[in-house]
Design brief:
Blueprint: H1 2-25, E1 30-33, E2 36-40, E3 46-48, E4 55-56, E5 69-72, E6 78-79, E7 92-95, E8 102-105, E9 108-111, E10 116-119, E11 128-130, E12 137-138, E13 151-153, E14 160-161, E15 174-176, E16 183-184, E17 197-200, E18 206-207, E19 220-223, E20 229-230, E21 243-245, E22 252-253, E23 266-268, E24 275-276, E25 289-291, E26 298-299, E27 309-311, H2 317-324, E28 329-330, E29 337-340, E30 343-347, E31 353-355, E32 362-363, E33 376-378, E34 385-386, E35 399-401, E36 408-409, E37 422-424, E38 431-432, E39 443-446, H3 451-459, E40 463-465, H4 477-484, H5 492-498, H6 508-520
Parallel strand pairs: 2-4, 3-5, 4-6, 5-7, 10-12, 11-13, 12-14, 13-15, 14-16, 17-19, 18-20, 20-22, 21-23, 22-24, 24-26, 25-27, 27-28, 30-32, 31-33, 32-34, 33-35, 34-36, 35-37, 36-38, 37-39, 39-40
Antiparallel strand pairs: 1-2, 8-9, 9-10, 29-30
Helix pairs in contact: 4-6
């Protein structure tokens, strides 16, 4: 019996409560809980909220697309974020004069003393707007989805732009952030796809999460001295951004901060940067080089594209990470050679005669592919591997000395090098790929009786024995001529070696070929 009475009391109280709320509203169009307007269910274009409502809930006017104006009574003291954001025909917000918390001017909602702009109506009929002098805060979602606004002028003295303040302002082209600004919160300008430039004032210590995410027209960003932190995804997807220069004050670049900035070609950091977080510059395909200062103490997962070369300080954290994780790196941005570990992976120079640095043990695949200017290549003694197609279609390459110590020459490594005449071939080679010298008329310089000679015989390749390699300069040409003209008798082995044309005799054709070798050498 007691339980029944208790339940009856609760039901009676709830019924009385809802009866009271209905009486307060006096209109079934308003669903009111306590003194909070939870939902407007009507279809009017001009809505007057009943007096006595003290709070407007976040869903109160959700997707009420017919509403043009809303009048807020004196009793309202709290308005939830987003209360008017989905009223996509709303042109005017009116606050009655006796309200002690809020006010309005020209249809725009402010707090009472007009130091905070609370809400700009989504469809207010203007494309340029000047925020009142004295406003120090642009509230959360204040201009959310205001898709007709083109220009907003902010007052001197403004201190804060709260989260999502200008999100989805698709036509917003121009906004000047005053020097007084201190807070630029998350999603502040999220997908403002027409915004083309911005200057971040120095009093803003942190650029918020996703602050300029998806601003696809943003081509110029100036970050002033004083900014310390660029939060995650702050500029992600800014597809028109071509360069970024970070001031000395920046210490941290957050995860995905510049992710998918597909036009980005240049990044400048100071020696104050300590953290470059995961994916900070990933999917930036045009970002060829980034100078990483020695101050950096952390580089996150996939912070840079695989194609980006890091310019690092020797023995720095970045250098050690580059070696450990096989990133591309150089020590000097002016270097023509991009190396990681000891592998040459890219040549970016413009020389006709290229000297590969000492210490390189491998030429990666296609490094010099179709480099038409290359006439000669000097390989260091440290080389062990010449990769697939490394010098393929280098049409001006005339001669190559493969150092003793090279063990592997990949498929098509020197294929279609039309001008290639001589290759000095060492005994150390253990593997030669298919068509390594395909479509060339090269003559191999080999040691008598060695592996290279046997390979040349099996392959049907023309070769000479390396006795002619003792002729190092023009002075020795005379001695060579004496051999060729039989002033000095040739041994049977020498005849075989000098018979370049393969016709079993030594004549002017052979002499010319050998002389070309000596001169090119």
């Amino acid at each position: 019996m007691k339980k029944f009475l208790s339940a009856l009391v609760v039901v009676t109280m709830v019924f009385a409560c809802f009866s009271r709320f209905s009486a307060l509203a006096g209109d079934e169009d308003f669903y009111i809980i306590g003194t909070m307007l939870y939902k407007y269910n009507g279809a009017d274009t001009h809505v007057v909220i009943p007096d006595g409502v003290t709070e407007i809930g976040g869903n109160a006017f959700w997707y009420k697309h017919l509403i043009v104006s809303i009048t807020i009574p004196d009793s309202v003291t709290k308005i939830a974020v987003g209360a008017f954001s989905q009223s996509e025909s709303l042109e005017e917000l009116i606050v009655t004069s006796g309200n002690l918390t809020f006010s309005s001017e020209d249809g725009v909602l402010y707090n009472k003393d007009k130091t905070k702009l609370v809400r700009f109506p989504v469809k207010k009929p203007c494309d340029e707007f000047c925020v009142l002098d004295g406003v120090v805060e642009i509230g959360e979602e204040a201009f959310y989805k205001c898709r007709d606004i083109i220009s907003v002028t902010l007052p001197d003295g403004l201190k804060s732009i709260e989260r999502k303040a200008f999100t989805y302002c698709w036509l917003l082209v121009s906004i000047s952030l005053p020097d007084s600004l201190e807070t630029l919160d998350m999603d502040a300008f999220f997908e403002c796809v027409s915004l083309d430039n911005v200057v971040i004032p120095g009093k803003v210590e942190a650029i918020g999460y996703c602050a300029f995410f998806g601003c696809t027209s943003l081509s110029s960003v100036t970050i002033s001295e004083g900014v310390k932190w660029i939060d995650s995804r702050a500029f992600r997807g800014c597809e028109s951004l071509t360069s970024i220069s970070l001031p000395n004050s920046v210490e941290c670049i957050g995860s995905s901060a510049f992710d998918s900035c597909v036009a980005l070609t240049s990044v400048e950091m100071s020696d104050k940067v300590r953290t470059i977080d995961s994916y900070a510059f990933t999917y930036c395909p045009l970002l060829s080089y980034v100078v990483v200062p020695g101050s950096v103490e952390h580089i996150g997962l996939n912070a840079f594209d695989a194609s980006t070369t890091l310019v690092v300080v020797p023995d720095s954290y970045a250098h050690k990470q580059a070696i450990a994780k096989s990133w591309l790196y150089v020590f000097d941005i002016n270097s023509d050679f991009v190396i990681y570990n000891t592998k040459l992976v890219r040549y970016v120079g413009n020389d006709t005669n290229v000297v590969v640095p000492d210490g390189v043990t491998e030429i990666d695949e296609l490094v010099f592919f179709e480099y038409k200017k290359l006439e000669s290549i000097t390989l260091p003694d440290s080389i062990k591997v010449i990769g697939y197609g490394a010098f393929a279609e280098c049409g001006s390459l005339k001669s190559v000395v493969i150092p003793d110590g090279v063990e592997r020459i990949g498929d098509f490594a020197f294929a279609m090098c039309d001008s290639l005449e001589f290759v000095t071939f060492p005994e150390s080679v253990r593997f030669i790929g298919a068509q390594t010298f395909g479509e060339t008329n090269v003559i191999f310089i080999v040691k008598a009786g060695g592996n290279a000679q046997r390979w040349a015989n099996r392959s049907g390749r023309r070769y000479v024995l390396d006795f002619i390699s003792s002729f190092d300069n023009v002075v020795d040409v005379y001695e060579l001529l004496k051999l060729i003209t039989y002033e000095v008798p040739l041994s049977a082995a020498q005849v075989t070696a000098a018979d370049v044309s393969g016709d079993s005799k030594v004549n002017c054709i052979d002499a010319l070929a050998i002389l070309k070798y000596v001169v090119n050498k």
